[in-house]
Amino acid sequence: MFLVSFFCGNELAAQISIKGIVADTAENRRVENASFTLITRTDSLLVKFCRSQKDGSFQLKDLAAGKYIYIISCPGYAEYAEFVELKENEEKDLGIISLFLTENLLKGIIVRDRVAAIVVKGDTIEFKADSFATREGATVEDLLKKLPGMQVDRNGNIQAFGKAVEQVLVDGEEFFGNDPTMATQNLKAESVDKVQVFDKKSDQATFTGVDDGETKRTINIQLKDEAKKGYFGKVSAGSDFQKYYDGQLMGNYFKKKLKVSGFAITNNYKYYGLGWDDLQKYAGKEYDYDEDNGYFFSYWESDNDNLGEKGFPKNFETGVHFSNKWKDNKHQLTFNYGYEQQFIKYNDTSYTRSLFPNDSTFLEQNFSEESQNKQKHNITFKYELRIDSLTSIKLTGSVGQRDKTRASDIFSKSAANEIDSVNDSKRIAGNVSDKQNGDYTLLFKRKFKKLGRTMVLNFNQTMMAENSDGTLVSENNLYSSLLPDSVYKIDQLKVNDYKSNKVSTSLTYTEPINKKVLIEGQYSYTWSNEVSSRLSYNDTIGQDNLDTLFSNSFDYGLVTNRGGLYLKVNQKKYTLKAGAALNYATFHTTNQFTGITQKFSYPNIFPQVNFSYKFSKQKTLGLNYSGSTRLPSLFQLQPLRDNSNPFNIGYGNPNLKQEFSQTVSISYNYYKVLSGSGFWGSLQYTNTKNDIVSSVDVDEYGKRNYQYTNVNGNYTVWGYGSYHHSMKKIHSSIYTRTQMNMSRSSNYLKGMLNVNKYSNISQSIGYGFEKEKKPEFGISYEPEYNTSKSSLNEGGNLNYWTHSIQANVFWPLPKKFELKTDVDFTFRQKLDLNSKNNNFVIWNASISRKVFKDKSGIFSFAVNDILKQRLGFSRNAWGNTISEDYYTLITRYWLLKFTWNFTDKASRAKKDAEEDEDDE
Length: 920
Known about the structure:
Blueprint: H1 2-7, E1 17-24, E2 29-30, E3 35-40, E4 46-51, E5 57-60, E6 66-73, E7 80-86, E8 91-98, E9 118-121, E10 124-128, H2 140-146, E11 150-152, E12 158-160, E13 163-164, E14 167-170, E15 173-174, H3 180-184, E16 192-201, H4 203-208, E17 215-223, E18 229-239, E19 245-255, E20 258-267, H5 279-282, E21 287-290, E22 294-297, E23 312-326, E24 331-356, E25 360-386, E26 391-416, E27 420-447, E28 454-480, E29 483-512, E30 517-537, E31 552-570, E32 574-591, E33 597-616, E34 619-630, H6 634-637, E35 648-651, E36 659-672, E37 677-689, E38 691-698, E39 704-711, E40 714-727, E41 732-749, E42 752-769, E43 776-790, E44 798-812, E45 817-828, E46 840-851, E47 857-864, E48 872-878, E49 881-887, E50 893-903, H7 905-913
Parallel strand pairs: 1-8, 14-17, 35-39, 38-41
Antiparallel strand pairs: 1-2, 1-5, 3-4, 3-6, 6-7, 9-10, 10-16, 11-12, 12-13, 14-15, 16-17, 18-19, 18-50, 19-20, 20-23, 21-22, 23-24, 24-25, 24-49, 25-26, 26-27, 27-28, 28-29, 29-30, 30-31, 31-32, 32-33, 33-34, 34-36, 36-37, 37-40, 38-39, 40-41, 41-42, 42-43, 43-44, 44-45, 45-46, 46-47, 47-50, ...
């Protein structure tokens, strides 16, 4: 329907025209060279434009009947905009149109419609901040919530036009690394000039003009000139004077291109910190992916710092930011340092039902008490030198240190067919670890005199080391016919060491065929090595009795050579990138205990096609295809056993093949600038050959032994659609979003192939009313339906609903008071894993009052979870398992809080009156 509406335009009528005269009535003269632009009212498409003559007259001919908006602009004058309707056979005469000099424009003049509130510049959507009313003291996050197509959740995560925002820039530069909330939650909305939303291309694609398909949904916050001078910041302190507390301090000093900022935060009721994305670099990823190597798993796949909302936290974070440019922007330096300390303690109860052939089941219950204490340091930096207009060098890097202590006290028990007890276990485990990492990249870029001819040389090194010492003490009982059958104990010291080093270099060269067509050639070389030692000693106080069954030491090396050739076509209406890369990977694993070395080699081809068609600046259709591989990890290949859970033992499979996945996706979006409405949709399909899956066996005592193997036929389908519409006359907006996931996954259970089919579909609809100095409110409803089916155990098939209703109100009151309240109703269909109620209603409310003459201070009183129904709960149904997890978290609490937003107004006013000095 969207495509049909584009092509079905009005027929041209040669006799329809529009004319007028542009004049400055205050100066009693006609205005020459004023720009007269005619755009469609529905989707802001440019129809025609012209300039006024010496006598101020203008005329456009050969127009189609319809509804339009005309815009008149001229340097030194305020922009003028008005609606107009052209009818058949009409010669519209607008008469004399008066423009006002900008310097004489009074505040009392009413702008009929803010045409310039939203501007589309190529692939960038730009919002004029002052065109979206926010209350006094609002942050950038509050501003983003006002913008069409933008959603911000309670944790500060941002979605722009249906896609998660990965990076927030301030004046085009990172602000405290990759932490979006540092800018959105601390900078003031009144300081913002423009908000730009775009898909940021990689440095290499930006430089060469060749789209490599790597993008990040990015928001750039452009500050007003007066906000870039002097200092400003925020001080906040709150407490209930008994248990909970919150303190924040942030200061910023901006002078032209110099930015210096610092912050400190401490609290004991928030589960998320400042969102340091660099955590994955220095604290260890679950895996690391690149096109050269496929998935490259870290050895410590079970290591995870993120505990979500579990337990009772104590947090402290601090950091500094410095950035500057000098010598006509030839030199640019950015530096960030962050420190984080967090302690969390929580209790956890989980129920897991495992389904096996012939309708047999095992129900496992786990009860645990766990604590975690961690400290992190991280430094990121970037230095760029522009040698001349054609050559530049950029050095980026990060270094980090993390220390962590974890302690667990776990009791678990299992029953066959949920009746007969088959085992129980009590385990006490502790671990102390430290981890360091470094990541450095040197990028050399060179353009040549021939337009489109470029060369990029890239060098990168990534290093990581982790050492940990721990203990495992457990007593495990196996039952037969409800009587104790056997008991065995574990009392071990665990000593683990891991090091990795990866070096890669690449060369990219582009050669233009003509102005619209480029050829891109690539070559890259990667070398990496991992050394891992995992030792278990049958004595918690010494290292004299090595348990060789649960100990191992490996050396894992990988070398890849990759070459690619791509064709890039960049036309006005469409862009195309098509080509392929050939990759040859060889790697080896050496068992340090036995001296046995195994070698593997894989040739790969990586096809890629990216096509984008622009019906207009506001309408885009995208088609993409790509192929990728995933190599088996060290843990999946080698016969390494882990007894941290004695009833769940894994084995390696050295005969694993690599995976090959093909992904096809289509996306379509359009945006109507003036109406504030738009649609964003995407559909993606991925199938995988030789998918690496688990093969699970279980004995009569409930002990699981699993190994990895390959299967074919697995696929996933993901779809998303979102529509947003603003109703300016009634100050309202509505939106609807649909998301769908479907998958087919297979694994082996007791030697038999089990096919699992899973689907999830959710539909949300919301309404919001927002008007300056008036009560504002919003409401949304989201039902979600889940199904999970197993071919080997139909008794375990699941179908269940989840419903969520959210509402919020903001009410400005007399005497500078403000009332806020929100409520979240969540209803989950009950499963028969346990008898607990999983429904809850979370109601929060706060009242605040602004103080001081400039309203820069705020006293607030807030109560969270008034009904004390907040519940720590998660549910997962996948493969042959269904699990529900219950954990302790913070429920009802109140805080009395004071916040002061300070600024150097006197100094800023003085600097505004001074002339800008030239850069040194």
